[in-house]
Amino acid sequence: MEEKPIDVARLGKIRCEIAPEPRTTLEGDQRRDREGNPLWVTCLAVRRLEGRRVDTIDVTTSGQPQGLTEGSEVRVSNLWARDWALEGRTGTSYRADAITPVAGSGGSAAPAPTAAGSRGKSGGDS
Question: In terms of CB atoms within 10 Å, which end of the chain has fewer, N or C?
Fold first, then answer.
């Protein structure tokens, strides 16, 4: 499927909803990119510039984003979306080069988990 760049300047505020977790296979192993780097997934809340609508998206990165706390504002670099279809299911997966905290944005002090989670089931990246 085709990858599409996302203009993050048009999205409005982006906050970390769930701190980075390892992106895992159904067997619980951490997924890796083509270069062998571990993949991480971070849930982001995106508030549109106009209106009250908020969307949440899971964004995959190569390597663990550092310094993110749940509720804090973040900056996303080079965000891409890819529509996928597999065995009658469809969706959109999101990848970014980096997710970094915005200085002084607040948020809670929830640490990033280190154990493998169950969030690796969605998306089309292997």
Answer: C
Domain residue spans of the chain: 3-108
Alpha-carbon distance of 105 to 2, in angstroms, equals: 34
At 101-126, the pLDDT tens digits run 998 765 544 444 444 444 444 444 44
* Global confidence as pTM: 0.79
Least confident of 20-34, 67-81, 107-121: 107-121
User: For the domain bounded by 3-108, which CATH number is listed?
Assistant: 2.40.50.140
Q: Tell me the per-residue pLDDT of 82-95, one tens digit each, with 9 for 90 and over.
A: 999 999 999 999 99
3-state secondary structure the chain: CCEEECCHHHCCEEEEEEEEEECECCCCCECECCCCCEEEEEEEEEECCCCCCEEEEEEEEECCCCCCCCCCEEEEECCEEEEEEECCEEEEEEECCEEEECCCCCCCCCCCCCCCCCHHHCCCCC
